[in-house]
Structure to design on (245 residues):
């Protein structure tokens, strides 16, 4: 592999084709795009060049997708889908090309992705399924992911949770990086949180700067009470008490 590894993410369905319809009405085309967008962002943080077959809710034929994928000359194509079955159907699976010759390593990656999705979601691993699907004819490693079942009410709600989608996208990314022996680029550590400031610290700083308070050390504890006399003296010093004009 020369240069950055190229990945095409294909959010399944779109536009006039809703794909599967969930127990609570989730449209597969929407959840596919949501997961694909998160996946694109996470993959983009690593040393991967990422393309999307569709960025919005648009109708796109399998042939259009196939042509777009070919133009990108990717090393890997991941088609993102969610499954439909009965109300009790459950689990993650990955589809690999059933026609033509699979690319070397393609089924190994698909198997690892099915395992990673099931483990992240805490649902059964349905493993690999052969599939004749247009986008799986691409001249690169190609896999279609079926994260879980939208027709299963509990699984639909699980799959809709943003933090679950994020965890899923992260696991898919790390599985891909591991498969191609690419380094994971760790995010920079978050800056140490600054100590919590007292709510009145800003006012104290201003009062010191204005010369109203000459002894800042006496004001170190901002939660001690102030006598009425001192309060009036400071009001006077601050020019608040100036009498009627
Ligand atoms: Zn689908």
């Amino acid at each position: 592999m020369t240069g950055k590894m190229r990945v095409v993410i294909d959010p399944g369905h779109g536009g006039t084709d809703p794909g599967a319809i969930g127990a609570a009405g989730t449209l597969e085309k929407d959840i596919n795009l949501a997961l694909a967008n998160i996946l694109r962002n996470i993959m983009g943080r690593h040393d991967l060049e990422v393309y999307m077959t569709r960025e919005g809710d648009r109708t796109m034929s399998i042939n259009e997708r196939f042509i777009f994928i070919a133009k990108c000359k990717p090393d890997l194509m991941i088609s993102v889908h969610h499954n439909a079955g009965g109300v009790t159907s459950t689990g993650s699976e990955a589809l690999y090309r059933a026609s033509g010759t699979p690319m070397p390593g393609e089924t190994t990656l698909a198997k690892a992705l099915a395992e990673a999705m099931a483990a992240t979601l805490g649902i059964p691993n349905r493993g690999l399924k052969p599939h004749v699907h247009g986008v799986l004819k691409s001249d690169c490693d190609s896999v279609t992911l079926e994260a879980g079942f939208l027709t299963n009410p509990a699984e639909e709600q699980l799959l809709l949770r943003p933090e679950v989608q994020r965890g899923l996208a992260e696991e898919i990314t790390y599985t891909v990086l591991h498969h191609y022996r690419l380094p994971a680029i760790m995010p920079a550590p978050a800056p140490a949180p600054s100590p919590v400031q007292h709510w009145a610290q800003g006012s104290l700083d201003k009062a010191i700067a204005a010369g109203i308070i000459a002894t800042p050390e006496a004001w170190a504890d901002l939660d001690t009470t102030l006598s009425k006399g001192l309060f009036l003296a400071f009001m006077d010093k601050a020019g608040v008490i100036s009498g009627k004009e």
Observations:
- Residues 12-13, 19-20, 28, 81 surround zinc ion (CB under 6 Å).
- Helices lie at 28-44, 62-72, 106-121, 153-160, 162-179, 201-209, 228-237.
